Amino acid sequence: MTLAKDLRTLCASGGFTLTKWTSHNRKVLMSIPEEQRAKETKNLDLSSEALPVERALGIQWDTETDAFTYSIKLPDKPMTRRGILAVVNSIYDPLGLLAPVILPAKLLLKDLCKEQSGWDEDISEKHAEDWKGWTEDVTYLSNFQVNRVCLWHRILPVTGEQARQEALFLVMGKSRVASLKQVTIPRLELTAAVVAVKIDKMLHQELQVPLQPSTFWTDSTTVLRYIDNDTARFKTFVANRINVIREATKPSQWKYVRTTENPADLPSRGLKAKSLAQSRTWIDGPSFLLNNECDWPEQPMQRKESLQNDPEVKNMATVNTIKVEEDKEPMNKLIDYYSEWHKLKRAVAWILKLKRTLQQLKDERKELSRTIIQAEKDPEKQRSKLEHHMKKYKSTREKKPLTLDDLVAAESEIIKFSQRQQFNEELQALQKGKQVSRNSQLFRLDPILQDSILRVGGRLNKSAMPETAKRPAIISKHSRVATLILSDIHQRTGHAGRSYVLAQLRRKYWIPQANSAIRKLLNKCVVCRRITGKVGEQKMANLPEDRLLPDKPPFTNTGVDFFGPFDVKRGRGTVKRYGVLFTCLTLRAIHIEVADSLDTDSCINAFRRFVCRRGQVTIMRSDNGTNFVAAERELREAIQQLDNDKIERALQPKEIRWIFNSPAASHQGGVWERQIRTVRRILSSIMKEQAINDDCIQTTMCEVESIINGRPLTTISDDMNDLEPLTPNHLLLLKSQPNMPPGIFNKDDMYTKKRWKQVQYLSDLFWTRWTQPQLKGIVTRLQCRHGFDLQILADGTVEGTRDETSAFSQFNLIPVGLRIVAIQGTKAGLYLAMNSDGYLYTSEHFTPECKFKESVFENYYVTYSSMLYRQSQSGRSWYIGINRDGHVMKGNRVKKTKGAAHFLPKVIEVAMYKEPSLHELAEQSPPRKTVKTGDSPSLKIGRKGPPKADAP
């Protein structure tokens, strides 16, 4: 009554009048004015007449008995899937109290969905009979009555194969039909439990009455075992739902109820309306709920059974543990903790600085204590004065940051610790004044002990190099310190490659087998793998048809492009001329014309001259001029102005199809772009020396055209008996290119008045720069560790000598690849080579057997091994070697660890030498005197087979 009064007063203050009041309490209705009551209660005698029934959407509230009743009137719909769905959804049951009766209709809809019946398709006779029976049974719901008042509640979730149901007594229920997808019973039961938890949470939030913690009842022992078990790892479906249950409830809130006593089992199986009205189980719940908790059903033992064979439990791997003794070295923990070399040094530096500070405080305390004891006899006063003086001493100490000396000292301590861990035996031997064992991995480094740090010995005592570079500290590649140092160098050098990191490392440290350690580091570096990783490459398209027609005459399919400009003298001034290069797309031959300008008419005229000399063209390809470098901006801009339409119209009467490449697609013209670069690179430099006239440039272009067309199209064989390689001139002129231009021409001919000599000089210069590139070679002596210098005599004999003034012991070390050299005697002019039997011989011409790999050994000596031959089984390389008698040895008998293979290059000068070329094998070298070795019979120079005895 108070609530109704307060509510009417509050609304009236805002100008609102609440009307249509009704209640099951007669005193409340009497307190409300008659004009504000509901229509049915206005003229009602509240003292004697019964209270009316209120109706809303099929639900009736009998205010006299304060209970809900139902009056179901089903709409007339056809017996189709759509009609049945409309009828089922017309029943208004927000609290789910009619769920047992509605379930059979929902299951009928599920069967229709499973049979894939159409929405407006008539259902089968069997389903029609079931539907009629259900519609007739629904009328009995008029006898079903539920009290509105709720005083206590218990939540019972249950499920079956067809549906699952939860009921909170006298409050609400909820029913859901299982999906068409087959789901196991335990999963359906667990889902019903989750819905029960959500309903409980909602009721605690919505009901404005104090509620005790809920008790949840289920007839599924599987669900109870899932909820109780907190050790097993469940699969995702079960684990997610168990987490929801455990977040809202405790395992002690869940109880077991037998299926026969579980009222929530009724809506999971379905119940007729007549039976629902007569049964009190669904409304009142199991009878044991009225008893004390001690009289409730006992919990089954199955609730505590193991879940070992449950399919919802994940298989767990068995992990066996072993006892590991903890490393008692604090330095090891410190090294493992830090991932950067600099941070590790700073941490150790602070520790050492703290150690020094504590030691100073200790010494100061001893000194003060001695002084105070002599002056004061009372112990209390002694202690007081000591503490006072120590506080004063600490306050006067200056707090200094770390210095470079602190970091250097920390680095030394870290290296000492690492060496004690890895090279303890070597350190003990050196500390006793002994040599390192020959079986030690450090024996070849000739280690020494300097400032208690193990360093490399070697032969660089008198070198001007820094002391750390002459005597680098030795660090094991297996230590954590080596990894931190290599990582620090790699990052400081901008993620440099292996060789550069190794060079920086050797300035201060020496790590045996450092190459493998650096390679391992680079493979793990994420930045390097991102930078050097292979990018996705697009698969190249098929070649155009006009590139694959060898049965057509030369220049039938042609590509064209401009190059230049070149300054040409005309009268007293100069004009610009341009080269027009035509290349056969099939034979790769070229034809060069000179154009006066870059206008369209000049381009057409050059093309007409080309056709008159080379024959009819069927397809002509060119670009749009956007594929030139920035230095030739003028040429690019001019070509862009060419009238492509005008050119194409001029060529149409001759049945020539001109195809223009896409703009900014230089890769489409790679055929002629490569030829343009070959010609332009050399002509652009030699044509600037002196201005020439039109006649000279025309002749020079013809000479260049002849030279380029003389290049080989096929692979050149190393066999001297093979045929001459095929060139474009063979296909154009039916003969190979003529020899070099006749006569001898020098640079003075460039400035003579005789123009033909000027043209011949330019052609000679083009030929030289095109065919004979130069390389820098190093003139050096190769001194063996046994004291002999390698030499090649004029007759081709290879031997060792102690004469350091001999001209035959000077060699040109000419690089022909990465760490690959050709060894050529400067006096004899012969190349050093090694054949398949391991014998050294000399050759006038550069062959594949003349290639040697140059490697630096750990003791700074250099070894030279054959690039062509090695041991077939072990893969060991064959090396150049000189024995103690000064004789050259067979390569397969020389080991890189022996002194015979160790050479010390003594650089004399750097000079320019012609690059060795395998194309020079035009003639067979004349026979020479045999080479005498210390462990082999005579061997003829150039011979590659087994050695034979010399003829008598």
Automatic annotation (TrEMBL):
Residues 549-736 form the Integrase catalytic domain. CDD domains: beta-trefoil_FGF11-like (cd23309). One of its GO terms (molecular function) is growth factor activity. Residues 351-378 form a coiled coil. One of its GO terms (biological process) is DNA integration. InterPro entries: Fibroblast_GF_fam, IL1/FGF, Integrase_cat-core, Integrase_H2C2, Retrotrans_Pao, RNaseH-like_sf, RNaseH_sf. Residues 379-398, 919-952 are annotated as: Disordered. It holds the Pfam family Integrase_H2C2. It comes from the Eukaryota. Keywords: Coiled coil. The keyword NAD does not apply. The keyword Isomerase does not apply. Belongs to the heparin-binding growth factors family. This is Integrase catalytic domain-containing protein.
